[in-house]
Amino acid sequence: MLGGGQLGRMFGQAARRSGFGFVVFGDQSDSPAGQIADHTFSAEFLDEDALKQFAAIVDVVSYEQENIPVRTVEVLQQYVPVYPGPALLKASQNRLLEKTALRSIGIPTADFLRITSAEELTEGVRSFGGDGILKTVTLGYDGKGQARVRSQQDMAALWSQFKTSEAILEKVVDFQFELSIVASRFGNGECRFYSPSVNHHLNHILDVSISPSPLISARQIRDAQQMAQGILEHFEVIGVLCVEFFATRDGGLVVNEIAPRPHNSGHLTMDACRSSQFEQQFRAICGLPSGDVKQQSPAVMMNLLGDHLMNATPERWASVFELPGVFVHMYGKAEARIGRKMGHLNVLAGTVEEAEAIGHEARRRLGFMSSR
Ligand code: AMP
Fold first, then answer.
1. Which of ligand 1's atoms lies nearest the C-alpha of 110?
2. Which tens digit of pLDDT belongs to each residue from 211-264?
């Protein structure tokens, strides 16, 4: 696994359960994934000698984050299969490439313009009716590297703050809610889809995912599956990806972005489905058949950020473990910081409303004062 974060950890947990060995490259041995790995290569992603040594002891490679250099995958591919390959990785690292590729296969995205100067920004915002969202082309996540722009603003000042030679200006999508779908594709071309979830963000960070959601129509489920399949096939993916959408007020879907890996909004599959998104990932990359992705119960995933855990004590934790249908997943991170993803709760119940209420109660029991 390239990367030692929580997505690598949960992949490792799934793979280990079925007896696979698990090696991490590119992080420390006490990283979330490193803690459960057979071995960690604490090396730079462009250290070709270390990559060669890593390739020599593994049979197949995947990645758990999109900010690894494409070159790393290209080097490894000389020795060992890497799934998904560099094409999807490249597109998901660059918002311009990603949206251009999506448009080329007929998938709707927000209207966008490439911006390379304050003049282009001024003109672009004007052409979008005086409003837009300016984003860095690479390395943006959880709302970082983006700004809402209105025509009365000082474009020269804003552009210089961005400190980049290339950015993307997106038209603001008037959406009703946000949803995502996690999908997997296997060596024989077979594609599988989880039930899409509705996602609520707080401070630009995913807070709650709900599945199945009464907000999502049958047509939107079908459209989400079709678009995800189009993307899986276009990039010839073997593995797992997540597509995030805006649900527009006319009942349509617009793709916001693609994650070339399992996704935070798919964590509820760990307890609500027989085969989780991480199990699908190791099955796909190891040439095994798909597991059962049908959801067995209404489920809600709630993230536990540093914010939620500031007042947690062993007694408070014990009271969370008392709650029915609550599954605690922690990532083994030593230091809780505001906004840092420390773990999540999956809650299963008879209805998603009930599950959400239990999830909020769990966070309250940890000592978190909810604003809701
Ligand atoms: P991103 O980092 O691109 O996923 O953006 C973070 C969040 O900003 C999204 O989840 C949306 O809530 C909002 N957002 C981003 N792009 C747009 C857009 N073109 N129109 C409306 N809202 C957006």
1. 19
2. 999 999 999 999 999 999 999 999 999 999 999 999 999 999 999 999 999 999
- For ligand 1, whether the C-beta of 140 sits within 6 Å is yes
Inter-CA distances, 25 with 285, 290, 325, Å: 17, 26, 35
Hey, what long-range contacts does 327-335 have (CB within 8 A, 24 or more apart)? 327/270, 327/271, 329/10, 329/267, 329/270, 330/304, 331/5, 331/6, 331/9, 331/32, 332/9, 332/32, 332/35, 333/6, 333/32, 334/30
Ligand 1 site, residue 337, Cβ cutoff 6 A: no
Angstrom distance (rounded) from CA 129 to CA 146: 19
- Between the CA of 271 and the centroid of ligand 1 the distance, in Å, is 28
d(CA 147, ligand 1 centre) in Å: 10
What is the Å distance from ligand 1's center to 170 Cα?
9
Predicted local distance difference test score (pLDDT) of residue 141: 63
The average confidence (pLDDT) of the chain is: 96
The CA 163 to ligand 1 mean position distance, Å, reads 20
Give the mean pLDDT of 140-161.
86
107 three-class SS = coil
Confidence of residue 143 (pLDDT cuts 50, 70, 90): low
Judged against a pLDDT cut of 90, whether residue 371 lies above it is answered with no
Atom of ligand 1 nearest to the CA of 244: 4
